[in-house]
Specification:
heterodimer; A: mainly alpha; Multidrug efflux transporter AcrB transmembrane fold; globular; B: 218 residues; alpha/beta; Rossmann fold; 4-stranded antiparallel β-sheet; 34% helix
Chain lengths: 267, 218
């Protein structure tokens, strides 16, 4: 069981304000080279401040109340918003919301359940809230990327898929190469970044722990646990989302559905 | 009749694509002719249930088409689409995939021969074939399932004259060798004359002629 040392550092608001110098630099680069991102950088800065501050207070409240039910409610809200956000990336997939919701719930439930059952983390808000947030966030990205690719591939491969159906293949057989590629693209980013972790970049958790004064050994071990947990959750979510969503392209009689307006169908 | 269409209608995107078609398609070789956008390919896709009509009924061998299990029906009524869409791999792996789906033994050399390809094509990568060769591989893939009916959607539209003649002679040979019926979509009345003996003529989704080729395309 992991027990975090009570190392803590204090960060003043002026230190946060000082880091805005780098945001100004980003906006200046955008303006200088005409990247047209100044507005987005501004929105991103304000939103990150407001959202993280609110989340900070919410987490403090959840830690103070110390109720597992409150944690589960928070995770359910994360799953719901995650599915809504991912759906906007999967516009070419008809009725993508339900597959995404199930994918995120399953990824979150299975991975958090396993880390608690294996005794890696205690079932308390201090562990479940941050780990749950990471798990669901990464699961959302992976399933969104997978379904985005699925939508593109189904459109591009329509002729090949229908030619395969014409041979009497099932919808599953006809869609399999497409589903496989979609699943792969959902998982590949995390697999690649896990391969290069420590060489090309230092992942966030480790950086945070080192800054907070933890020993490098502890920081590395916790980071490894989180990376492995994320690999599991990303695989579960990408697989569940693609396997459930590809069926929406077919009728029960193994026909490709006519999608006159996929964006409307996705709504 | 092999197929019997009664008041068949279909809409797509708020537009009527097929409008109250009633016609018979006998065993043998039937050509569905008409200009682009007449609904020829759409009608062909209805015959092996790649789509179902919104209105009306189609019978196949005296039974409603909808009463046939779609996957089994497609082994018996095989459709070759307009453009080649083979699976990555060799010609033989494509033939085997189709034969396995239909639960048929594959005789590679004979199937290739029927499709107008010599046995050396078996091991060729489909990505390295010309469009005409790919189209013949598509025909071979359909034949690997030993269908009773072959639905061909503009099988030579993307080909030059020489490649077209090769496919047409393969089809003529096929009819001599096998007990197989062919329903062929073509925008070219001359091709219909060369290959068909019965014809359905469509215009803007409506049937404007149906009967023996010599009478309809006289």
């Amino acid at each position: 069981m992991i027990l975090l040392a009570s190392t803590s550092i204090h960060v003043d608001l002026w230190q946060v304000a000082a880091s805005l110098a780098l945001v100004a630099l980003a906006a200046a680069i955008s303006l200088w080279w005409g990247a047209d991102l100044e507005r987005d950088i501004g929105i991103a800065t304000v939103r990150s401040f407001v959202q993280l501050t609110l989340v900070g207070y919410a987490i403090k409240l959840i830690f103070d109340v110390d109720s597992i039910w409150l944690v589960l409610a928070l995770l359910a809200v994360m799953v719901l918003f995650g599915a809504i956000t991912a759906r906007s990336r999967a516009k070419k997939v008809p009725e993508s919301f339900k597959p995404l919701l199930i994918a995120l719930a399953l990824a979150g439930g299975t991975t958090l359940g396993l880390v608690v059952a294996l005794g890696i983390f205690e079932p308390t808000p201090r562990y479940l809230v941050p780990v749950g947030g990471m798990v669901i966030g990464n699961a959302m990205t992976a399933s969104a990327v997978a379904l985005n690719r699925l939508g593109d591939e189904m459109a591009e491969s329509r002729a090949r898929i229908e030619a395969t159906l014409a041979l009497g293949a099932t919808s599953r057989e006809a869609a399999m190469p497409t589903v496989r590629r979609a699943l792969r693209s959902g998982m590949i980013t995390l697999v690649d970044s896990t391969k290069t972790t420590g060489l090309i970049f230092f992942p966030g958790t480790m950086v945070g722990m080192l800054l907070a004064g933890a020993s490098p050994t502890d920081a590395v071990r916790l980071q490894l646990i989180l990376l492995y947990v994320l690999l599991g959750s990303v695989s579960i979510s990408a697989l569940t989302a693609t396997v459930l969503a590809y069926r929406n392209f077919f009728t029960p009689a193994a026909q490709l559905r006519e999608l006159d307006d996929p964006e409307a169908a996705a709504a | 009749m092999l197929f019997e269409l009664r008041e068949v209608g279909l809409d797509r995107g708020g537009k009527t694509v097929l409008d109250s078609l009633s016609a018979g398609i006998p065993a043998g070789a039937t050509a569905i002719v008409g200009p682009s956008g007449a609904g020829k390919s759409t009608l062909l896709r209805l015959l092996n249930r790649l789509a179902d009509p919104d209105r009306g009924e189609i019978d196949y061998r005296g039974q409603p088409l909808r009463s046939y299990e779609p996957l089994a029906l497609r082994h018996e009524v095989a459709l070759v689409p307009q453009l080649p869409a083979l699976l990555a791999g060799t010609v033989e792996s494509n033939l085997r995939y189709a034969a396995d789906l239909a639960g048929e033994e594959l005789d590679t050399a004979r199937t290739l021969g029927l499709a107008g390809l010599d046995p050396s094509f078996a091991g060729r990568d489909v990505a390295k074939l010309s469009v005409g060769e790919q189209q013949r591989a598509m025909l071979g893939r359909a034949l690997a399932q030993r269908p009773r009916v072959l639905l061909l959607d503009e099988p030579t539209s993307a080909l030059d004259h020489a490649a077209r003649d090769t496919i047409e002679s393969a089809l003529a040979e096929l009819r001599r060798e096998l007990e197989i019926s062919i329903v062929l979509v073509s925008h070219d009345p001359e091709q219909a004359r060369r290959l068909g003996d019965w014809v359905l003529q469509l215009e803007s989704g409506r049937l404007v002629g149906c009967g023996p080729l010599a009478e309809v395309l006289a």
